[in-house]
Amino acid sequence: MNSEILANDIQQFINDNLNTDIHKILLSKSRFSEVSSRELVEQIESKLKAKFKLPTWFGADNIYYPNKLNLSQTSSEVTANYKASIIDGASIVDITGGFGVDSFAFSKKMNHVFHVERNKDLSKIAQYNFLQLNAKNIECLSVDGLAFLRDSSNIYDWVYSDPSRRDKDNKKVYYLSDCEPNVVSNMGLLLSKSSNLLIKTGPLLDIKSGLKELSNVKEIHIIAVNNDVKEVLWLIQKNYKNEPLIKTINYKAKTLQEFQFHLSEEQIVDTQYSKPLNYIYEPNAAILKSGAFKTIAKDYNLFKIQSNSHLYTSKELISFPGRIFKIENIYEYSKKSFKNSGISKANITTRNFPDSVVKIRKKLGIKEGGNSYLFCTTDLDKNLLIISCLQIFSDHN
Asked: If we measure between CA atoms, which residue out of 150, 157, 209, 156 comes closest to residue 179?
């Protein structure tokens, strides 16, 4: 951490050049002897990234930013605040503190937050920024998170971990037991220090795979922002033996879409099927990630178009946690059938369909964009269909 970056004239330069071509700055000699051009660019890039991801940080004066890789790996302010909303008590240990976004959110809910980060430089940055943000109930410790717990004689209300999903060679890993720290093999230690654990994993971790690796899972929260799954949260309670509740959350610009279910429900639900009727419904990304393909149809009294399509239909318009479309026409998947549609530009989505979007565009001569939406899918009789629609509600509203 180069504290010279915090000088008034350097902070002013960073703010004045947020919209400047950073390559010009990088290739030019720094006007500041204490701060290099690369360090200036690093601050500019990270501050720009924080504008939408971390608006509180962006709006505060004299924030010190880490490199953009560290910033890209941290939670967004939206998801961090959600995590804080599902915990309670007086104390929490964040054993993978990082830049401190989650710890800061926890500090608004808990009396005492322990931000534990083994990277000394990142720990210093987080500690400095907490003071700038007036978060006075966060204690920063630059040690290994698991070692801190082993050496501590205290019991905490919560322990939180966001294991790194990259190995020592910086390659992505996909099993929780391959992440660092390994919360699977250290579950005994974690539960000896707190009866409540909150573990964050990336959106690629399969839910059933995670359930095989973890025990005592009380709830699983799948968090999406504008229909993009950002993280999966595993709420673990000591000695919990019942079936976990799966909650899906999709943050939209103006509303919040929520849906919850149990996997056992999904296994026993009888699904009703139909050919496309008047409306098409596409569940948001959090629901699709959860695997609630039959439960969502039952709870909203919808028909599935085909067992593997995960598209739903109804005669009457209903409110739904996802995108909603009014069906205009239905065509066979052939250039001849589609020729008279008059559609030359459209947004294409495939569901249970053999051809890629690129191949479909080439075959039908359709450009990207416009107001028309085409769902390419397979019906109950295994016919390939093109459903032409107009969108009436969006995940982004």
From this structure: 209
Other C-beta atoms lying within 10 Å of the C-beta of residue 19? 8
Question: In 10 A of CB 388, how many CB atoms?
Answer: 19
Contact at 8 Å (CB) between 40 and 24? no
Q: Are 377 and 371 in contact (CB under 8 A)?
A: no
Q: State the pairing for strand pair 245-251/256-261.
A: antiparallel
Instruction: Name the residue with higher pLDDT: 83 or 67.
Output: 83
Q: Specify the pLDDT at position 222.
A: 98
Average pLDDT over residues 337-349: 90
pLDDT interval class at 223 (50, 70, 90): very high
